[in-house]
Amino acid sequence: MQHCFDVYERVYRFSEDYGRSDERRQALVDGYGWVARYFFEYDKVAFDRCMDRIEYLEPRYVPREPRSLRLISKLIGYRAAEHIALRYRRMKQLMVGGLRGKAHRRS
Question: What pTM was computed for the model?
Answer without folding.
Answer: 0.77
